[in-house]
Amino acid sequence: MRPTDLNVPRLMRAVVYRGPNDLRLEQVKVPRIGRKEILVRVDVCGVCPTDIKKIQGGLQPPPRIYGHETAGTIVKVGPNVTGWKPGDRVGMHHHVPCLKCHACRHRAFAQCPQYKKTGITAGFEPAGGGYAEYVRVMEFCLPGLVRIPRGNTVVEGAMLEPVNTVLKAVKMLGLLAGDTALVTGQGPIGLIFTRLLSLQGIKVIATDFLSPRLRWAKSLGAKIADLPDGKAVLNGVDRLTRGRGVDAAVIAVPVDSAVAQGQSLLRGGGRMCLFAHTKRGTTTPLDLSTICVDEKQMMGSYSSDFTLQKEVARLVFSQKMDVRLLVTHQFPLEETAEAVRLASKPTAESLKVVVTHKPG
Ligand SMILES: [Zn+2]
Ligand SMILES: [Zn+2]
What we know:
There is one protein chain. By secondary structure, this protein is an alpha/beta fold. It folds into 2 domains: 11-158 and 322-356, Medium-chain alcohol dehydrogenases, catalytic domain (Quinone Oxidoreductase, Chain A, domain 1), CATH 3.90.180; 165-300, Rossmann fold (3-Layer(aba) Sandwich). It is built from 12 helices and 16 strands. It has helices at 49-57, 102-105, 113-116, 154-158, 160-173, 188-199, 211-219, 231-241, 256-265, 289-292, 309-317, 336-344; strands at residues 11-19, 22-29, 38-46, 69-77, 89-91, 120-121, 134-137, 146-147, 180-184, 203-207, 224-226, 246-251, 266-274, 297-300, 327-332, 352-356. Strands 3, 4, 5, 6, 7, 8, 15 and 16 form an 8-stranded mixed sheet that branches. Helix 5 packs across helix 6 and helix 5 (160-173) packs across helix 11 (309-317). The longest helix has 14 residues, at 160-173. It is globular and about 65 Å long. Bound molecules: zinc ion (ZN) (2 copies). One zinc ion (ZN) binds next to helix 2.
């Protein structure tokens, strides 16, 4: 250990996934790091729907330690690592593409074989590790570390990854300032869409079934916020687009009726982005002539884009995209199961749920 390394215990607390819906607070060994790796003390970890899906659905064999929207403080740096030192506060990305393979050359980063590996772990099969006190960052994930400026919080650092996934999708939509977009679902992700699109001069029509979320959408820049079948939505599309239909539809809830509505409100040549349909085997009837004849494009976006890290950091740390507003609930590590329960069944008042660690 180099003299500058911070004190690290041998054992730590971790919330271990032991089977579907079975999260247990256990004592595990603090991960050892290699010469080109970094050890980070986790300060905060967001609860993300993709982890909830794995925890509740039992999609991967246990044991694992989940949690990937992580930010913390570097406590130990391998001797062959440059540019980082103990005490630095960082936001992390658990997937980082190689930038060289066939998929990366096509900018399909989420399809890159290296990207599909998880490079941050608190032990067992790497799964993010944010629901533990310390995580090991492997060499290939070091480029995914983002420094948190002095004036910003670790919570903001933990939100870099989700904001990145949204910005990536926003770029795919290829919109022009003054365009109109429908954003269906105003959970944390939908609200980030609403904000990022509004910042780019896009007129956003936001829908959700929960009225507090509609108020949030308005405050983050939506021109119109209403129930999906609300009059304001249909009239708004007509008024804002002069009857053309919306230029883009973002589906941030895994609901069939949202896809149908998005496709019908889209103008010819417009783009629909599926962002929440992560469950394999989901099908929905679709009039294919709307794609062939009307040239409505349907696309999906998943995970983050490494090349956007700097832009995301600027948006979050300048608080133009003020993610602090989205974090409504913080739970201590030992109540991670409760945090997951709340995030999976949001109440009218809950948005982003995070697990906060007591600094050791
Ligand atoms: Zn996530
Ligand atoms: Zn690659």
